[in-house]
Specification:
The chain has 223 residues and is an all-alpha fold. It has one domain. Helix 3 runs antiparallel to helix 7.
Length: 223
């Protein structure tokens, strides 16, 4: 075999190798595109379902606030403990409603033709906001134990009569402080956090984020 024949064989081999690389690259690009379309559609479906859930929650929240408002008006502040407790619960519910409306707007503003990174960033914003509003919602917890208090119970009953409600409220205050301080994304992998955030609202965000993460994982496998 002459040198020229050997060179031709090597050139032919290199040419076939380049063709194989090109075919693999085209196949990878096609698979990536298909995966992106499929995972993006799954993400969109989850977030749209979440938006519908939040719209329903907002409607219920508004009705709940109206009901609490009627109770406060009907009481005419005759029982200050009842009026203040219900008013505070109303306040936290209104804050939740406003936050949920913000979430709905944020979800509908997501442009799925944007980069995967931008969509992931918006989901992270939703997660952070969800954690923050949960911290705020729990602040109303002690007021659920004080709405039935009255001057008569505190002033005229024996100390045994109001000690138990007072102790219960105090324990709820401690629980509220602990929850406010510990509900944080840094505790996302802790068991109590997963139990607390096991609702559809949170799991939808987690699944949506995981769908997009699968695209990144596919890219890393090929790289």
């Amino acid at each position: 075999m002459t040198d020229e024949e050997l060179k031709n064989i090597w050139k032919e081999y290199d040419h076939k190798l380049e063709e194989a690389k090109l075919l693999n690259l085209q196949s990878w690009a096609l698979n990536l595109r298909s995966l992106e379309m499929m995972q993006t559609e799954k993400t969109k479906s989850k977030l749209n379902a979440l938006a519908r859930f939040k719209i329903f929650a907002v409607v219920l929240g508004v009705l709940y606030v109206l009901l609490l408002g009627l109770l406060v008006v009907a009481n005419h502040f005759r029982n200050i403990y009842f009026s203040v407790s219900i008013s505070m619960i109303m306040l936290f519910t209104i804050i939740s409603i406003i936050t949920y409306i913000y979430h709905i707007v944020l979800i509908h503003k997501i442009n799925y033709s944007e980069s995967i990174t931008q969509t992931q960033e918006r989901i992270t914003i939703l997660q952070t906001s969800t954690v923050n509003i949960m911290r705020i919602i729990w602040l109303q917890l002690p007021f659920h134990t004080t709405w039935f208090w009255s001057n008569r119970m505190i002033n005229f009953n024996s100390w045994q009569g109001w000690l138990i409600p007072f102790v219960i409220t105090f324990l709820f205050v401690l629980a509220t402080i602990w929850l406010y301080r510990n509900i944080d994304l840094k505790n996302i992998n802790k068991k109590w956090f997963k139990i607390l955030f096991s609702s559809t609202e949170w799991t939808s965000l987690e699944k949506a984020k995981n769908f997009l993460s699968e695209i990144d994982d596919f890219k890393k496998e090929i790289a």
